[in-house]
């Protein structure tokens, strides 16, 4: 008999848990998380209080706890010094091997990156792998305004003779956004919460918000298993989702709690005291 329980059930809007995310998730029932939005440590580029990062164990537990039709958004980059590490691609292939569908490969473009390189173009992006368990159950496409709209003579039915044939057609006022999303970074871009920058790697609130709106609906349970400063939680809760954030660092959980409470969201901190089942 399994000792796992539905420890992640949506019995409260906000939960922050101090613990190793693998141990925490191992006590949860299968298929209970609708959306995960997270940005893991990679290539040792930041000092995360000396904690390690058991990637494959995390990936396997994420697959198990993700609901059918659920989505994991995995925001990750590569070490570039000495040649690209290609960590991001290796992780994506691992997710695919354990059963996730690589639903989309998106780009997070940083509008104002200060990191120039002497022998290559300035690196200004990270990958956003949108991994689904089967076909995504939810997709609320974000829209962008079109340059032209209204009725125009539009090309159609171009034959091998190369002659453009036209007929009257309608151009919509907006269209679904592309899969390259651009955000300003730093104070005022990433967030206005100064406390967030006590964490060494903060991604933009708007990035988290856009994925939360795209792949979930109000009332859905959103997870960040390495929640850091709490960006995913803040945006999920402000949009009427439930949220669980896990981090092995009590200091980072304290930052996340302070950010949530500053946004009017009271939350208690839990310790993962239950041994893995």
Structure, described:
By secondary structure, the chain is of the alpha/beta class. It has 2 domains: 14-142 and 178-271, 3-Layer(aba) Sandwich (Rossmann fold); 145-176, no CATH class. A hairpin with an 8-residue loop joins strand 7 and strand 8. It contains 6 helices and 13 strands. It starts with 13 loop residues before the first strand and ends in a 6-residue tail after the last strand. It has a 9-stranded mixed sheet with strand order 10-4-5-3-2-11-12-1-13, sandwiched between helices. A two-stranded antiparallel sheet has the order 6-9.
Q: What's the structural blueprint in terms of helices and strands?
A:
Layout: E1 14-18, H1 21-25, E2 33-38, H2 55-65, E3 66-76, H3 87-98, E4 101-110, E5 125-132, E6 143-145, E7 150-156, E8 165-171, E9 174-176, E10 180-183, H4 205-215, E11 221-224, H5 231-238, E12 242-247, H6 250-262, E13 269-271
Parallel strand pairs: 1-12, 1-13, 2-3, 2-11, 4-10, 11-12
Antiparallel strand pairs: 3-5, 4-5, 6-9, 7-8
Helix pairs in contact: 2-3, 4-5
Characteristics of this structure?
277 residues; alpha/beta; Rossmann fold; 2 domains; nine-stranded mixed sheet; two-stranded antiparallel sheet; 6 helices; 22% helix; globular; disordered C terminus
Based on CA atoms alone, the radius of gyration comes out at: 21 Å
Query: Percent helix among the residues?
Result: 10-25%
Please write the CATH class name of the largest domain: Alpha Beta
Q: What structural category arises from helix and sheet content?
A: alpha/beta
**Nearest-integer average pLDDT:** 85
Helix count, per DSSP? 6
Shape estimate: globular
* Order of helical and strand elements: EHEHEHEEEEEEEHEHEHE
Q: Beta-strand level of the residues, as a percent range?
A: 25-35%
